[in-house]
Write a structure and sequence with these properties.
With about 425 residues, the protein is of the alpha/beta class. The protein has one domain: Divalent-metal-dependent TIM barrel enzymes (TIM Barrel, Alpha-Beta Barrel). Helices cover about 50% and strands about 10% of the residues. It is built from 15 helices and eleven strands. It has a six-stranded parallel sheet with strand order 4-5-7-9-10-11. It is globular. The protein starts with a helix and ends in a 9-residue tail after the last helix. Bound molecules: alpha-D-psicofuranose and manganese (II) ion (2 copies). The site of alpha-D-psicofuranose has 10 residues, from loops. One of its GO terms (molecular function) is metal ion binding. This is Sugar isomerase.
Length: about 425
């Protein structure tokens, strides 16, 4: 479904006076507003292809209908999100769920929607119907070198697909690990995985990055071979300068201090990118900022601080992606919510008075330091986020416009009610 320019213009026109009144505070009183607005315009968050359909859980799936059935339809959905918010200008593909039939045509379609290809993801956590050897007992860690070779070749094939599309990174998430004590020799599993990753790393083009994503649990529940940021950091360090750690917010043990992990990885020049989502219990993959918005802000606070300390470009030097999926929401509405929550946390982090914060820290003024952070977090930045969208050619209220156009009904009419998006 296409968003017509008159629909966008009508929507913005209707909301413009109210928006200007809210924005007046920012333009009159905040010296920094223009800088923040420009940074928000530049900041793009990639949409994973697998979040466009209803995710479901292992207990069931309640599809909402009108889900994209092909890669072209997935790009159309991300194109629609981007037309609405002008902040979702990239799509992340998962192979083999999203194998492009014709890479040039796929590139053209993406360009038509103003999208680029973010990191490509390999999949050695499922067996595919035509696959020779099983990943039941792992892939890159497997005791059988033939299974490891198959998984390595798959990753190299994923790189080839990514190259054809103009992607610049490979994300490797491994479900490898063990479910019971005694099942696995940890040291052998680590070195086999490292050797396999080294073969994949050797196939990376020189302008590519390799993201090693960690996860503490699930589907293996006793040990995960890339189970925490420490092991991911170790793999990335041993692999070389093109390898980095990828932080998925849902992949930690309860109460982990993710912002401190982020600060350390940035300092060591090994933070590669993010999978944003939120969770209350485990890898819940809920909407970003829906459960712990203060944590999201604190993470962005470290990101801005650490990236500025190293002179990094916020928009381009790390991979920004959502990784969420749902049973009860329209996936497109949910993604609009996630993108806005991320933008809000980012804008609030940009507001932090860093000089004052450092002074407070040096003086051991705990109360003042906390006040500085909470002052930024409690600021309603929605008017400048909306202004950034407006200036970039998007909608003042993407979700309101999406609903007023009755988008889901139209998608169901085009694609049918009983759709199953490819992927998880
Ligand atoms: C695993 O839980 C994960 O977060 C990885 O990023 C996968 O590639 C993704 O979910 C999709 O299943
Ligand atoms: Mn992830
Ligand atoms: Mn996950």
């Amino acid at each position: 479904m296409n968003l017509e320019s008159f629909q966008l213009a009508d929507h913005n026109q209707r909301l413009l006076d109210a928006h200007r009144r809210k924005l007046a505070y920012w333009t009159d009183a905040v010296a920094d507003a223009e800088r923040i607005i420009q940074k928000l315009i530049d900041f793009q968050i990639a949409i994973p292809s697998w979040a466009l359909g209803t995710g479901g859980t292992r207990f069931g799936r309640f599809g909402g209908g009108g889900e994209p059935r092909t890669l072209d339809e997935k790009m159309a959905d991300v194109g629609l999100l981007h037309a609405l918010n002008r902040a979702s200008g990239a799509i992340s593909l998962h192979i083999p769920w999203d194998i492009p039939q014709d890479a040039d045509a796929t590139r053209q379609t993406a360009a038509h929607y103003g999208l680029r290809f973010d990191a490509v993801n390999s999949n050695t956590f499922q067996d595919q119907p035509d696959q020779a050897l099983s990943y039941k007992f792992g892939s890159l860690q497997h005791v059988d070198p033939a299974v490891r070779r198959q998984a390595i070749e798959h990753n190299i094939e994923v790189i080839r697909h990514g190259v054809a599309l103009g992607s610049k990174a490979l994300t490797v998430w491994l479900s490898d690990g063990s479910c019971f004590p005694g099942q696995l020799n940890f040291r052998k599993a680590f070195s086999r995985t490292l050797e396999s990753l080294q073969d994949i790393y050797a196939a990376l083009p020189s302008d590519w990055k390799l993201f090693v994503e960690y996860k503490a649990f699930e589907p293996n529940f006793y040990s995960m071979t890339v189970g925490d940021w420490g092991s991911s950091f170790l793999y990335a360090s041993k692999l070389g300068p093109q390898a980095y750690t990828l932080v998925d917010l849902g992949h930690h043990l309860p109460n982990a201090n993710i912002e401190q992990i982020v600060a350390t990885l940035l300092m060591e020049e090994k933070l590669g990118g993010f999978h944003f989502n939120d969770s209350k219990y485990g890898d819940d993959d809920l909407t970003a900022g829906s459960i712990k918005p203060y944590q999201l802000f604190l993470i962005f606070n470290e990101l801005v601080d650490g990236m500025d300390a190293r002179g990094m470009n916020h928009a381009t030097d790390l991979g920004w992606m959502i990784d969420a999926s749902h049973n009860v929401k329209d996936p497109l509405e949910d993604l609009l919510q996630s993108v806005e929550a991320i933008q809000i946390a980012y804008a609030q982090a940009l507001l932090v008075d860093r000089t004052a914060l450092e002074e407070a820290r040096e003086a051991n003024d705990v109360v003042r330091a906390q006040e500085i952070l909470q002052d930024a977090f409690r600021t309603d930045v929605r008017p400048i986020v909306a202004e950034a969208r407006l200036r970039a050619g998007g909608a003042l209220q993407p979700l309101t416009l999406y609903r007023s156009l009755d988008t889901r009904t139209q998608l169901i009419r085009e694609r049918g009610l009983k759709t199953v998006a490819t992927g998880l």
